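In response to the reviewer comment on reproducibility (Comment 2.3), we provide here a single inverse folding case reported in full, input and output, so that an independent group could reproduce the run without further information from us. The structure tokens appear first.
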């Protein structure tokens, strides 16, 4: 017989006896005494001591009776008792700090119930931010970790230009991972231009694939040439114009399992002088995990970092705070009017990473086939000058010191003029009607007291 209502005396694992409360579902409970009338969906009875995951919508309807709302409890499997290990590279950076705080206190989100009840160990790899350890300790002391987070461990001095970085991770106890979120990068186009060898090592870290885990990779919109508006990841070609874009695109191809990391056109279509002499040999690249995801991010905007002393980029967490400071001090500042991006809210970046992380973890058969590419941007196509004017208007500040200028066509680091993106694919995948635009980003960042 298959009853939809079973009477249980229940106790939350690691907690007190729970009765007469409404539960959100997805929590692990142990049956202390099972009703003989209840049988599991596969016909087996749930014996005393059985561990189950209660479906969403479950609630206690009297002293010890549970209504499963038409669902079935999922029997707790032994493999799920082992915490899943997640590596976050670039943890001390802007996105990294926001992400570690999000996961630490809110857990890992997902659309399905597949991961409910799982626990996680989070490994935070970073290079050399002196304030990171103390700031992280301070953050974790003042707020309780999400119940699903079993452990958070930081690993310092992980420099991807050092060929020993895999050994350093393993020496810290990070032997294997269930998923990797790869945020670490040399992201200054100017630095990459002058240090191409290091840029290739850091931005195209092929040894990271040796762990065999799915990689959620934060790439860049600078893989596009910038000669049109609203690039689509499926139909529009890539043609980076600087070393930074080339190295990021090459690692996309690594995750796609391509035998050619950059085409002759992609190598010859830039004015960098980099002909790919530092590009890794594809014969030495391990096979990528097919559940990896490539996120081509635009310029990321948002509030301050959750760690007290911020990240290595200095006193301005994002471009918004830089503009705010210049406007409030009435400092004359030039902003380009002839470069356009689909600026993205850091909150949307976190939602996207969480979404694809959850998806990668819950898939065990690699059914995706190969890595997927998504444009990660907002719905506003805007120049840096346009951002400055919009922010000045919101903060009711005089914008006369904000000067709109053209980026020179000759000289300096090559830069794509219009890399605005079509973001319909990622919005549909994440189940949202639209990504945040510049108005929402500014409103959330400044009106919510984030700055």
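Designed residues, in position order:
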């Amino acid at each position: 017989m298959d009853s939809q209502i079973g009477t249980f005396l229940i106790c939350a694992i690691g907690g007190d006896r729970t009765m007469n409360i409404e539960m959100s579902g997805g929590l692990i409970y142990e049956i202390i005494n099972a009703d003989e009338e209840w049988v599991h969906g596969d016909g087996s009875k749930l014996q005393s001591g059985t561990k189950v995951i209660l479906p969403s919508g479950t609630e206690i309807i009297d002293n010890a009776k549970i209504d499963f709302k038409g669902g079935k409890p999922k029997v707790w499997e032994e493999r799920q008792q082992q915490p899943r290990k997640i590596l976050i590279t670039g943890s001390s950076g802007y996105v990294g700090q926001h992400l570690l705080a999000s996961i630490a206190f809110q857990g890992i989100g997902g659309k399905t119930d597949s991961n409910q009840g799982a626990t996680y160990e989070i490994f935070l790899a970073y290079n050399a931010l002196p304030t990171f350890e103390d700031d992280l300790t301070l953050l974790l002391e003042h707020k309780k970790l999400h119940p699903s987070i079993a452990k958070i461990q930081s690993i310092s001095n992980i420099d991807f230009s050092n060929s020993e970085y895999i050994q350093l991770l393993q020496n810290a106890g990070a032997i294997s991972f269930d998923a990797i979120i790869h945020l670490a990068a040399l992201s200054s186009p100017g630095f990459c231009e002058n240090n191409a060898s290091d840029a290739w090592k850091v931005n195209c870290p092929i040894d990271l694939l040796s762990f065999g885990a799915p990689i959620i990779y934060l790439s860049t919109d600078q893989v596009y040439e910038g000669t049109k508006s609203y690039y689509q990841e499926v139909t529009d070609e890539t043609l980076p114009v600087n070393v930074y874009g080339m190295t990021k695109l090459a690692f996309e191809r690594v995750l796609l399992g391509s035998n050619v990391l950059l085409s002759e056109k992609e190598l010859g279509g830039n004015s960098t002088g980099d002909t790919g002499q530092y590009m890794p040999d594809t014969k030495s690249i391990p096979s990528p995990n097919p559940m990896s995801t490539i996120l081509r991010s635009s310029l990321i905007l948002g509030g301050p970092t959750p760690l007290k002393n911020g990240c290595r980029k200095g006193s301005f967490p994002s471009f918004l705070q830089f503009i705010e400071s210049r406007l409030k001090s009435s400092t004359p500042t030039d902003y380009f009017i002839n470069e356009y991006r689909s600026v993205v809210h850091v909150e949307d970046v976190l939602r996207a990473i969480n979404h694809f992380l959850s998806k990668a973890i819950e898939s065990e058969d690699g059914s995706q086939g190969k890595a997927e590419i998504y444009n990660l941007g907002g719905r506003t196509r805007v120049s840096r000058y346009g951002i400055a004017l919009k922010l000045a208007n919101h903060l009711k500040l005089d914008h006369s010191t904000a000067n709109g200028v053209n980026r020179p066509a000759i000289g300096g680091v090559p830069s794509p003029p219009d890399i605005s993106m079509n973001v319909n694919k990622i919005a549909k995948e994440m189940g949202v009607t639209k990504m945040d635009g510049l108005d929402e980003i500014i409103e959330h960042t400044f009106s919510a007291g984030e700055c």
